[in-house]
Amino acid sequence: MQAPNNQNALLPVFALLGLALFTQIARADCPELPPTDNVCINLETTADCGANCCTFNKDNRRTALIIGNNDYSGKLGNLCNAGFDARALALKLKGEDFNVCCLLNAKHRNIEGARIAATKYMRDVEAIKDADGNPRYLPRDTRFLTYFAGHGSFSTGQDDNGVPNQTLIFGTGKYETDEDLLDNATSITTLRDDWGSFQSVHPIIVVDACRTPITFPADLTSFEPRESVTSRTFSMAARSFKIPLTLKARGGGYVVLYSTKAGTIASDVFSGGAGSVQSGRFMRYFSDEIDAWGRKLDRIFDVVNVAVKKDSEAARPPDGQAPTEDDNSPLFNAWPWRISSDACSAAMNELGNAVESDGAGGSRCPDKPFSECLALGEPSPVQCATYNIQLASVKSDAACAAKVDHAFSAFFGANGDRCRNVSAEPEFVATNFTRDMTVADARLDQALTAPTTRGSILTEGAPEIPQIEKSVEVRTGTELRSPDRQRSAVEYAQKGTKLQIDCLSPGSSCSRDWIGVRSSSGQLSYVRRSAVRAVSSAKATVDLLFDKATGLPTISSLEALEKEAGQFIDKPETTVRITAEVSNGADPMAMAEAERQASQLEALIQAGGFKGQKFVRDYVVLAKDIEPSQIHLEFVAGQ
């Protein structure tokens, strides 16, 4: 028998707050929810709007459907914090320019109507096309969050294929029979699957509700909605490096965050005092972390997960609450939760990412709240360089500069004071770079004219950065000179001969015109710089061309990246060097954009499954009248 039509009631991003199924709480013990105002519609004190409670504007890229239900009776007892959690989140998101529909004490018909309105919104956004007839917006550009706080359960049993069933949520009302539960249940899995096909919007469903077992009698239904045996996480599928395929196909996706694992309860602890905002356990941490600039959903969830488990273990008795997720979208760990919708928010996201970065592709504080990360340690030269670059890009916007200072002064100091005495410059490989030369040649020329870097690039290398240029290749046949470079040639090198670079051994040296080398015989000699080309020791290189419309690599570039990067995904000793292009003219906006593009590419590669590899960045300044259009990647094996 087909599932009842109420199983089609799905919401884009559901956060169901910790609410114990079948737990009776006296209404007198809970404060009253506020009446309808400009934040939420309280359906307990306002005329029922039925299926027409919510409308969403397709021109708004940030949209949220928020539902908080306290008012239950019968088998489902009243709740205290669900409505307050929902209202607090609605108020927060309204302050961040989200188009919010917030419903308190919503019945099943209200939820179903909101689902239909949300589906229409996503369909309308999908219908907006670019010049090539493709959806104009990517999931990177949109956020649809649906938050539901109320009673939840996990339906036990299996379908005909032996697949476990799924999480259900319930509208307000009186629950006397099993039929009442079944008729008023909304299926999270059906919700997820219905909305997971949109290319422009990947809904985020945060389920912070009890998932205690419930079994419906066989005479009511022989089929119950199902949940995957294993979470369809992007990261689990990514060991074969599938991020390029996802971007290339522009497929659908979704993220579901559960406040607790199947079969367990979630806390509805009243944590606020008189006049304060009340919150349940999960929302207390989730609400704080979504404020963080630069943090991606996977990092937000990791932090919330640790905090909730710790809080649960401290409860008396411990209640076993343990969040989990079902992730099928690159949004989860490729882009920040907060959208970079303008220059200021783009700068804020890049600064937030820099604060968290350990400078090599990892995190300084992977399990810590962002507020603690801000208070941890001193800014490094790389972090200070990002601060200077991003602040320079928005210096004409006084309001944004003040916003930066307010958000990041705990780490960088007031007005960046903690970076004033730090040598903080990005690493430039070349100026007046043309695409007739290779990045390897540009890096070699830089080393030949910058003695302070010769040791790290031309010999054994600094221990933290694997060496790139170790040898040169003869362009055309040429003479190799003796160390004094005055006597006749000591050897003749044919075209294609590889020579080991040696600039620092006793008796050797290098200059703009001559390079100390050792041939296969090991003899020290010199070769004219003009006669050789640099050979990168990278095991693979990829030049990624970027689409101006999307700001992402082209399809052919993604295919090349997939082909070359896959061999390094299980090799954490690999270093990934990203060389980005900067337009000529020292434009602060150009430098900031190059840094953001390099940062985004790093995040995409990591989202594709790279875990533990070291990432380093440098830049080339293009010759006049050449526009930035690509990023050069080198995959260097560990030494």
UniProtKB/TrEMBL annotation:
GO function terms (MF aspect): cysteine-type endopeptidase activity
PROSITE patterns: CASPASE_P20
Domain of life: Bacteria
Signal peptide as annotated in the record: 1-28
UniProt keyword annotations, A-Z: Signal
GO process terms (BP): proteolysis
Stretches assigned to the Caspase family p20 domain: 60-211
Matching Pfam families: Peptidase_C14
PANTHER family linked to this entry: MUCOSA ASSOCIATED LYMPHOID TISSUE LYMPHOMA TRANSLOCATION PROTEIN 1/PARACASPASE (PTHR22576), MUCOSA-ASSOCIATED LYMPHOID TISSUE LYMPHOMA TRANSLOCATION PROTEIN 1 (PTHR22576:SF37)
UniProt protein name: Caspase domain-containing protein
High-level lineage: Bacteria, Pseudomonadati, Pseudomonadota, Alphaproteobacteria, Hyphomicrobiales
